[in-house]
Amino acid sequence: MISFFRRALSSWLVLALFGLVLIAFAVTSIDPSWISGNGGGGSQIATVGSNKISSNEARQRVDTALRQAQRETPGIDMAAFAAQGGVDQVIGQTISFAALETWGREQGLTVSDRLIDGEIASTPAFFGLTGKFDRSAMEAALGQARMSERQLRAEMAGDALRRQMFVPIAGGARVPDGIVVPNASLLLEQRAGLIGVVPAEAIPAGPAPTDAEIQAFYKANAQRFTIPERRVLRYALFGTDQIAAAAPTEAEIQAFYKANAATYGASETRTIAQVIVSDQKAAEAIAAKAKAGTPIADAAKAAGSEAITLDTAKAQLAENASAAVADAAFALPQGGTSGAVKADLGWYVVQVAKITGQAARPLAAVHAEIADSLTKQKRDEALSTMISGIEDAIADGASFDDVARDKRLTVVTTPAILPDGRAPAQPHWKAPPELPLLMRSAAQMTTEDDPAVETIGTGQRYALVAVSEVVAAAPAPLADVREGVIAGIRNERSAKQTRAIADAILAKIKAGTPMAEAFAQTQVRLPAPAKANARQMDLLRRDRPAPPPLKLMFGMKKGETRLLAAPDNSGWFVVQLGEVIPGDARTQPMLIASLRGDFSRSMGDEYIQQFIAAASKDVGVKRNEAAITALKAELGGQGQ
Prior knowledge:
- The structure is a single chain.
- The chain is an alpha+beta fold.
- The protein folds into four domains: about 5-175 and about 605-635, no CATH class; about 190-225 and about 480-580, no CATH class; about 230-245 and about 375-470; about 265-360, Chitinase A, domain 3.
- Helix content is about 50%, strand content about 20%.
- The protein is built from 25 helices and 17 strands.
- The strands form five sheets. A four-stranded antiparallel sheet has the order 14-3-16-15. The chain has a four-stranded antiparallel sheet with strand order 10-5-12-11.
- The radius of gyration is 33 Å and the shape is extended.
- Mean pLDDT is about 85; it is low at about 1-40.
- It holds the Pfam family Rotamase_2.
- GO terms for molecular function: peptidyl-prolyl cis-trans isomerase activity.
- Belongs to the PpiD chaperone family.
- It is found in: Cell inner membrane.
């Protein structure tokens, strides 16, 4: 159910970037108040060196991970997530991440502010109308997520620190041919045989069940006919379309224009080729050759270096290289070549290939653009103020009805619904499109919980949500499920008869009767066995799940016959393996290369896990198993 999430969390290389995943969640209005240890409170589940990890921090990380899993499997709830090991994984990784960051900083690893600035500037959620980084857009996004810039920078720094450790460790993993080639040959192994099926639908239905049989089956299988816990939701939608923000004044438009003069004023970008070498004399030699007419790429190659072409503005070049390099590059005419210029990374030689200028845009040309931007900003600020006012009112004791009445919101009341949005008592009721998003949090709410403000989509719409009733799980009335009970009785009968027929066929085959004859001799009419063959690698395709009988063949001995239950009690397969054809991967170099890559990644993950264990031991990690067990029970729905 949560296969993608579990695959991602099984790879420590993926986890090295997990911080950025959380950041992406944060800037789409998922509350990240726990980032960088600010989710304190609750019991202490672990200590890492002198740092403590609280149950609240772990709980919020688990909630974020659950939301990620729900993107692949809508409808999965916390109980199912916990049952499949998701909670255990996230708690373990939270502790491991803290140990890694602590160890890295103790060894002197650091992350520069300049690197974090680059990460922030390249985050699409922080782009403005120009398609480039805009501080106002960043502040708006962080404001909606209730996240400070300090918290954002701390999480990005931790992510960068982990990459410094993970990438070199995993990158050195190499697997020899002695391991790769035999395993690749197994993937090419081919198996052939016969597959027969004894379908339950071929078995006569028999007489209708009596009332006594129906009652007995219903009681014995009450769990099968139990309707899970349901909730009645009350919610009210609101968003920017309900905000009547004032239009910006001329003074505000002019002030914005002046404050962003760099954006609207005249600008110049240059296409340059730059060469970086460590020696001044080598740089001067490259410059001399380029000025004499040798292509700068050839001059760089002769010196054992490389010319890199890029489009850049002066300020960008000054930030990435140095002010001196930028001054030299932007003082040259088109086609000109600089001398050797010293910078932090070494000696630069720059040649200007093209100069592109953009004229200044007067206020009249961008007036409407600025007005639209400021109007949106005012509307977003008004909406943020409205949300804060609602949350403050709830914190002061206001009820759902109080807030809805005060803000003139339209209230929607649902039937008693399941976490997936279905209403068992009203099978024809259709859930509105916003309900699945609201159920992600409402599925955990009770009637005692305060109303909550939930984000819908990209943050332009919100909902005030409360649970007015929780209907406990209980068996459906027999009258409502009578036909299902009768179908269950008949399925049980046919399942027993189907198994008996399959057992009889298997016994005849083991006694020496050919498989086709054993099928033909049954008292019911069955389809003849069919030939089947496959390679091991054919069963691993993600776009087409392998049939279970074919998978079974690769666990059998030549000449062996086995039974395999068909899904949903729909019958039995009779599988006979007739031939095994070995594979030879030496004729498939691409397969060997692909498998070597998979093995190397697995080995890299193993190296990293061993490194994490050593780092954890070095900094001193102590787990509070009692607190962890209590948290897991609470999240899994086993608490009081």
